Amino acid sequence: MPLLSVHDLRTHFHTRNGIYRAVDGVSFSIERGETLGIVGESGSGKSVTCYSIMGLIPQPPGRIVSGTAMFDGVDLLHCSPAEARAIRGKRVAMIFQDPMTSLNPYLRISEQLIEPLLIHEKISRRDALSRALAMLDAVGINDAAKRIHYYPHEFSGGMRQRVMIAMALITKPEVLIADEPTTALDVTVQAQILELIKKMQRELGMAVVFITHDLGVVSGLCDRVQVMYAGRIVETADTRTLFHAPRHPYTRALQRSIPALQSKGVELYTIPGLPPDVSKTIPGCAFAPRCEFASARCTGGVPELTALSPTHSHACLRVQAGEI
Amino acid sequence: MSDTILQLTDVKTHFPITQGFLLKRHIGTVKAVDGVNLTVRRGEVLGLVGESGCGKSTLARTILQLVPTTGGTVVLNGRNLADSSARELLAARRDLQMVFQDPYASLNPRMTVFATLAEPLFVHGVCPPAEVPARVAELMRVVGLAPRFMQKYPHEFSGGQRQRIAIARALALEPKVIVADEPVSALDVSIQAQILNLLAQLTKQMNLTLIFIAHDLSVVKHISDRIAVMYLGKIVELGLAADVIDRPRHPYTRALVSAIPTPNPDIERNRQRIVLAGDPPSPINPPSGCAFHPRCAYARAECRNAVPPLVADSPDREVACVRLSEIS
After folding, report:
1. CB contact (8 A) between residue A188 and residue B197
2. Is residue B61, in this structure, part of any structural domain at all?
3. Which of these, B15, B69, B183, B263, has the minimum number of CB atoms within 10 Å of its CB?
4. Every domain of chain A and the residues it spans
5. Are residues B128 and B253 in the same domain?
6. Does B264 reach chain A within 8 Å, measured CB to CB?
7. HEC states along A231-288?
8. Domain count, chain B
9. Can you give the pTM of this predicted structure?
10. Do B193 and B269 belong together in one domain?
11. Are both B151 and B187 inside the same structural domain?
C-alpha cells in the first residue's frame, strides 16, 4: 500500500474574474523512501497540489472540489482539524521556496526550531533544545550551539534554507514536501542543499515530493517524475524513461527548449503561444492549441492518463493511438 | 571581428557603508567591483557569470555609468566614460543600452508601449517626430510583437512579451553595445527559449555587441562567444564559452560547473560533484590574497598572501590562480 495516495484532486479558486481551475483532476501516489518530482511551468498547479495536501489553501477563495489524499488510513482532505494537526508538521512536513520570507523575523531560530517538538511531542524545553541543536548540526550549520540563538536576518539564504530543512525534519516525518527549495539559491548553494536532502532522506528513510521547474535538478534527485500542465498531469514515468523516451508532446517540447540539452548556438525549440488561462473551461487537451501534433480529435475530449507500461503513463490521444 | 569596442581597465566600484543619520560616520566599504580588466570585441556576445553578490550587476551598471566609478577607466569607442560629463554620457548612451532582469519592474506601468519606445527617439532626436510612429511599429516587429498593440499598457502583456518590449526599447537608438542583466531569469523555460533565440538572432542581424549576464551557466554557454567568471568583484577566468564550461581551469569555475545539475539522469547519478563548503565571503571584508582561498581545495599559504593576477594561460584563456600549473 502506498504511503500517500492522492486521487482525483481538484482545487479551484473562486474569484471575481471566474473560477480558476488550478488543479483539475490530479492522482498520484508515493511509496516509503521514494522521491517523486513534480515538474511544470509557473501556473501549472504543482504548488497548489501540495498546498492542498497540507491543508494550506485559503478557503475561500480556494475550494477543494473533489478528491482524497489517503495517508495511513486518514483522508487529509476530509479529516477533522484535530486529526490534520496531528499529522501535519509531524508525519508530513513541508519546506517552502523562499527561505527569506518563511521564517518569522521576530523569533530566534531556537524558538522556531523547537515549536514543532513542543506541539507534537511530550518533551521538555531543555530536551527539545538539545534535539534542535543536534538537528542544526546534522544540516551542516557550524557553531550550532551559538547560532541557535540568532535571529533569521543573521543567516544567509543558504543557511536559512538549512534551518527550514532542520525545522521540517526535526519531528522525523515520513513524507517531506519540498516546494522549489533551491530556486532562490545560487548553484553552489543549491548543490549543497540537494546533497543535504539526499543525505537526510537516506538517514530517515522518508518519502520526498520535490516540486521544481528545473529539469536538471529532477534528473539527479528523483526516482519518478510527473509533468504537470494547466492543472493536470500529462506524463509520469521513472526518471530515466522520462528523459530518454518522453512520449507526451509537451514533455518533448520542454526538453527541446532547454539550452543544456542542445548543442551550443543552435536555435532553441520554442513552444508557440502562451500557457492557457485556467479560468476558462478548456475543451479537450489543454496543450492542443500549442501542440505541433494537434488534430481535430484533441479538442474533442479530455485525454485520460493512460498507462504505456506499469511505470510510464501519459495523456496524449495521438500517442496512445500510435500516430506519433 | 577582433577590434575592441569596450575596454575596462582596473575598474573599481566601491560603496561606502555609513552609520548614523546626521553625522554619517564611514564604517566600511563594500568592494562590489574591485579591479576588473576586460576587453570586449566588436560583435561578440560576452557572458558574465557568478553567484549573487559577486558584483556582476554592479559591473553592468558601472559600464553604463549608472553608478559612479571609484577608479579605473571604461572606454567605449575611444572615449572614457568614467570621467565624462553628463552631456557626454547622454551622447554615449546612444551606443550603449541596457535590458534589465525583471520585465515587471523595468517598464513604467503608466506608459503605453508607444510612449515607452518613442521616449528614447524623442530624447535623442534620432528621427523627425512625424516618423516616430513608423519607427516604433518597426521596432515592435523586430522583436516579434504586433504593432497593433502599440497603445496597450505593460500590465496587458505576459512576462515574455514585456521582456520583448524592454529589448525593443534598448534597440530603439540602434546601439552598438547592449548590456543584458539576467534577461531570462524571471521567465519560464518555454518563454526563456523564445527570448534567447530573439537575442541571438538580433545580435547577428544588427552586428550588436552583447554583454549577457546570468547565473544559469547552460544559458550563458548557449548564447555566448566568450565567458568571464566573476568571484567577489574580480574576474577569475575568461575564455571561449564552450571551452570554459567543458574544460574549466580555475578551481572556482570547476566547482561552479560541477554544481550545475544536468538534465540527464545517467550522467547525474554517477558524477562526482565538487560541493563547496560555506557561502561566498562578504565583499565588505574580503579574505586576503585570493578571495576564493577559504573555500578552495587547492589553497596553500601563498594563496593567502597576494591577489593572483589574471594571466594568459593559452591564447584564448586567462585564469587568475597561482597554482594553476600544479593543479591541472
Report:
1. no
2. yes
3. B15
4. 246-324
5. no
6. yes
7. CEEEEEEEHHHHHHCCCCHHHHHHHHHCHHHCCCCCCCCCCCCCCCCCCCCCCCCCCH
8. 2
9. 0.84
10. yes
11. no
Same domain for B263 and B144?
no
Residue B154 and residue B178 in one domain: no
How sure is the predictor about A292, in pLDDT bands with cuts at 50, 70 and 90? confident
B35, B234 contact by CB (below 8 A): yes
B231: which strand partners?
B234
Residues B28, B156, single domain; the answer is: no
Find the length of chain B. 328
d(CA B210, CA B180): 7
- Which of B172, B201, B217 is at the close of a domain? B172
Interface test with B, best of A219, A223, A243, A252 (most B CBs within 10 A): A219
- pLDDT digit string, tens, across residues A59-84: 888 888 888 988 888 888 888 888 88
Q: Is B219 in CB contact (< 8 Å) with chain A?
A: yes
Residues B76 and B45 occupy one common structural domain: yes
d(CA A271, nearest CA chain B) in Å: 6
Is there a domain that residue B326 lies in?
no
Q: Is residue B261 part of a domain?
A: yes
Rounded alpha-carbon distances, angstroms, from residue A132 to A139, B106, B167, B288:
11, 43, 50, 35
- CA dist., res. B157 & res. A173, Å (int): 43
Q: Is B298 exposed, middle or buried (0-12, 13-18, 19+ CB in 10 A)?
A: middle
How far apart CA B262 and CA B257 sit, in angstroms, is 10
Q: For cell 533544545, what's the residue? A: A129
B232-278 pLDDT, tens digit each: 989 999 999 989 988 999 999 998 888 888 888 787 777 777 878 77
> Chain A: residue nearest B268 by CA?
A220
- B194 lies in which domain range? 4-95+174-273
pLDDT at B328: 67
Q: Tell me the chain B residues in contact with residue A189 when contact means C-beta distances shorter than 8 Å.
A: 51, 279
Kindly report the nearest CA distance between residue B324 and chain A, in angstroms. 21
Q: In the prediction, which pLDDT does B3 show? A: 85
Residue A285 pLDDT class (50, 70, 90 cuts) = confident
- If DSSP states are collapsed to H, E and C, what string results for chain B? CCCEEEEEEEEEEEEEEEECCCCCEEEEEEEEEEEEEEEEECCCEEEEECCCCCCHHHHHHHHCCCCCCCEEEEEECCEECCCCCHHHHHHHCCCEEEECCCCCCCCCCCCCHHHHHHHHHHHHCCCCHHHHHHHHHHHHHHCCCCHHHCCCCHHHCCHHHHHHHHHHHHHCCCCCEEEEECCCCCCCHHHHHHHHHHHHHHHHHHCCEEEEECCCHHHHHHHCCEEEEEECCEEEEEEEHHHHHHCCCCHHHHHHHHHCCCCCHHHHHHCCCCCCCCCCCCCCCCCCCCCCHHHCCCCCHHHHHCCCCCEEEECCEEECCCCHHHHC
Q: Are residues B83 and B120 in the same domain?
A: no
Look up the ipTM and state it.
Answer: 0.78
Taking only the tens place, the pLDDT of each residue in B273-322 is: 787 877 777 778 888 888 888 888 888 888 888 888 888 888 889 999 88
Strongest mean pLDDT among A94-98, B52-56, B151-155: B151-155
Contact B60/B140 with Cβ under 8 angstroms?
no
- In this structure, what C-alpha cell is assigned to residue B113? 508601449
Are B276 and A188 an interchain contact pair (Cβ–Cβ within 8 Å)?
Answer: yes
- The reply to whether B148 falls in a domain is yes
